[in-house]
Amino acid sequence: MAPDAMTPGSMKRPCAAIVLAAGAGTRMDSELPKPLHPIGGRAMVLRVLDALAGVDAEPVVVVVGHGAAQVRQAVGAAAPQGDRLVFVTQPEQLGTGDAARVGLLALDPHPEASDVLVLPGDTPLLRAGTLRHVVAERRRVDAAVSLLTAQVGDPTGYGRIVRTATGLTVVEQRDATPSVAQINEINAGVYCFDVAKLRRVLPQVRQANAASEYYLPDVIGLLGRSGEPITAVALDDVSEAMGVNDADQLAACEAALAARA
User: Fold this and answer.
1) Using CA atoms, how far apart are residues 210 and 207, in angstroms rounded to an integer?
2) Coil, helix or strand for 189?
3) Could you give the CA distance from residue 184 to residue 149 in angstroms, rounded to a whole number?
């Protein structure tokens, strides 16, 4: 990834953010809502919000669901955004596309936001400079979306980046053919969208997948097929793409964070 392309003070156009923190985290084998599991003594969703503080995004919408009241209380008390935080509840956990739809509703009172960062609440190793770069890259080429990718040794569990002569798409693990499953470039789940174009395309996402969920990454393919430009930012430090779905991944993130010190 290129050097940090944008400082907080240089982001003159408004950029909003939506943090997806509604999941139950059933594989965590814990009664604590997944976003509140600590990494280095701080809830992982708060670490995501710490990185977002370096983007100076406003508003920052946190989509909650499982354990909503507990997440609201913990995040509201400790997030750096203060009164820029907005909480919305996803009534049913129908996938990341549905969570993004719920989050977009909270942006209706903020028509001045031309960009929106959408990112998961369970990627606690993201850096502020990385998020600024994703925003800057979308603006640099006036793309419909920029997304964060990484080359990893073991892509199991991640969506794969499928590149063709006409652009790129994202294929989720459970929907991947054997050949696609061999691809080592993964989707890190971090996007900067042109808000208007996301609003136009998101309603076209369908539940035509193995999980019967609305996949936010399907928006990438829909935008590409409609001729919209798409750009990607590749991570240098692949640890930033590490997500947490179980106790082993939580421990791996803890170790990666300690290694940064």
Assistant:
1) 8
2) strand
3) 10
pLDDT in tens, 27-73: 888 889 999 999 999 999 999 999 999 998 999 999 999 999 999 99
Per annotation, catalytic residue among 13, 27, 163, 260: 27
Claim: this prediction has a pTM higher than 0.85: yes
Q: Which two tokens stand for residue 67?
A: 């354990």
Pick the CATH number of 14-260 from 3.90.550.10, 3.40.50.1010, 2.170.120.20, 2.30.40.10: 3.90.550.10
Single-letter residue type at 120: P
CA dist 158 to 5, 90, 217, Å?
Answer: 27, 23, 11
Contacts by 195-202, CB closer than 8 A, 24 or more apart: 195/16, 195/104, 195/107, 195/113, 195/114, 195/115, 195/116, 197/144, 197/145, 197/223, 197/228, 198/100, 198/104, 198/116, 198/118, 198/144, 198/145, 199/104, 201/226, 202/97, 202/100, 202/101, 202/104
Query: Domain extents for the chain?
Result: 14-260
With a CB cutoff of 8 Å and minimum separation 6, the contacts of 111 are: none
> Could you tell me which of 100, 103, 66 has the C-alpha nearest to residue 86?
103
> Is the separation of the CB atoms in 195 and 16 below 8 Å?
yes
Count of residues in the chain:
261
Residue 42 falls in the annotated catalytic set: no
Which of 141, 180, 161 minimizes the C-alpha distance to 221? 161
